[in-house]
Design a protein that fits this description.
The chain has 119 residues and is mainly α. Helices cover 57% and strands 0% of the residues. The chain has helices at residues 23-34, 39-45, 52-57, 65-75, 79-83, 89-99, 103-118. The longest helix has 16 residues, at 103-118.
Length: 119
């Protein structure tokens, strides 16, 4: 019987540069913490088991792009932020303020930004 190789997450400890945590993991952890989100709840909301986000942040495996997108969506995080260059002070200030918005206000701001980009 032929079995397709698994594409996506690798279930082992991933090496990091100089033993440091990758920047995208640090940014994701910070974004979740800034929003006071429980890792287990985000995991479940993203369709994973409760420990998924904690283990991923600890570097036990790499998520698939699709899974990371679901996690960012569940946490209200723009995935591009995880992989972009360091944000400026102004961008960081905006991100911090955005973390304090209610769900309704965040939706309103998001629609405003989308409307401005469409022009």
């Amino acid at each position: 019987m032929y079995v397709e190789p698994m594409i996506g997450a690798v279930e082992k400890k991933q090496p990091t540069k100089n033993g440091e945590v990758e920047v995208w993991r640090q940014r994701l952890r910070q974004a979740l913490d800034d929003r006071n989100l429980d890792y287990d709840e985000v995991s479940v909301s993203a369709g994973s088991n409760a420990e998924y986000v904690s283990k991923m942040l600890a570097g036990r495996f790499n998520p698939t792009v699709a899974r990371l997108m679901k996690i960012c969506e569940a946490g209200g995080i723009n995935m591009a932020y995880l992989f972009s260059d360091d944000p400026s002070e102004e961008e960081q200030s905006v991100l911090e303020k955005a973390a304090d918005l209610s769900g309704e206000d965040a939706d309103l701001v998001n629609r405003l930004i989308q409307s401005a980009r469409a022009k």
